[in-house]
What we know:
Elements: H1 2-45, H2 53-91, H3 106-156, H4 161-192, E1 201-204, H5 205-215, H6 217-222, E2 226-231, E3 235-238, H7 240-257, E4 263-270, E5 274-280, H8 288-291, H9 313-323, E6 327-332, E7 338-345
Parallel strand pairs: 2-4
Antiparallel strand pairs: 1-3, 4-5, 5-7, 6-7
Helix pairs in contact: 1-2, 2-3, 3-4, 4-9, 5-7, 7-9
The site of adenosine-5'-diphosphate has 22 residues, from helix 7 and helix 9.
Amino acid sequence: MKQKKEAKKKRFIFSNINIFFTFLVLVEIVITIGFAIFLQWILESILQITLSSTSFLLLVGGFMGSALAFLVNRIFFKPIEQLSQGMNEVAEGDFTIKMSTNSPINEVKELYNSFDLMVRELGATEILQSDFMSNVSHEIKTPVNAIEGYATLLQGGEYSDEEQEEYIDKILFNTKRLSELVGNVLLLSKIDNQAISKNEKKFRLDEQIRQSIMQLETNWTEKDIELDVDLEKVEFVGNTTLLIHVWDNLIGNAIKFSPVGGLVSIRLKQSEAKIVFTIEDQGPGIAEESVKHIFDKFFQVDSSHKQEGNGLGLALAKKIVSLNSGEITVENRDAGGCRFTVELPLVFR
Ligand code: ADP
């Protein structure tokens, strides 16, 4: 079906070229005859040289025909032929190709520009997809290998109760990691192509954030983190189930990167123009050169925390916030540590 369509399209293009070419040949014949008559008149009446009309026509026609063929070939067929070669290379997976032409025809130049743009876009998508897939595969492989390793250990030997418990803990830890990764990848792929927020409803943002803090209680109590929480009563219209991921990630990270006994401050304020959520910690902050990549998928500044995350949380947070027409930013604090700010619009419904 597709092939039939392509063949039809090809036939159409060629019929257009044929019309164009036929027109050119007709123009050439008229010019040739006119020019031959004119030349014959000059030779006969001024220079008194006599040649038969047929010889004239043959001579001038031959010259004009070759000139025309050269011209058409150079400005039209050659660039199209080059483009067709370029297309074959792209079809074989080479997205580095860059085409240029010195054809004076604007349509041909535009065709080249569009082709280059298309190849660049295709290349970017291909890099994104292959990077994403290789990152996912790598992230999946690590916990799966660990689970397999500890399970094999348990299967094969005589171990004390403590050792067995340790191996089982490791298996559970890696299973949790794997399930978080798969959950994040699924969520990301679900919302990645979404342009607008769906399933919106009115809810209390402060209560949702409080719920997230309570859910992470084990994490902050284990590290003896002091929490300074000040949440104004704020109502918001948005996607509740998605937004909870944002607070879980930002609060989870602040705790994860804080030193033992550190202070984490969480604020939620509503002004006349917007809703502002900030979270500050006393962790290592983020190196200046990494700030611009912090919301990229799978980006992690410091590999020593690799075991505790997958680098997808902030990419998800950014996508969710922008789906809710908001903005998320990060800055390092003068006093050390960093501050994440989420700004959301006031939505009245
Ligand atoms: P992860 O699962 O690795 O935490 P995220 O996308 O949530 O993934 O974060 C990406 C990276 O950003 C982290 O690995 C860490 O390097 C950096 N980061 C995030 N939050 C903080 C923070 N509060 N302090 C320091 N670095 C942070």
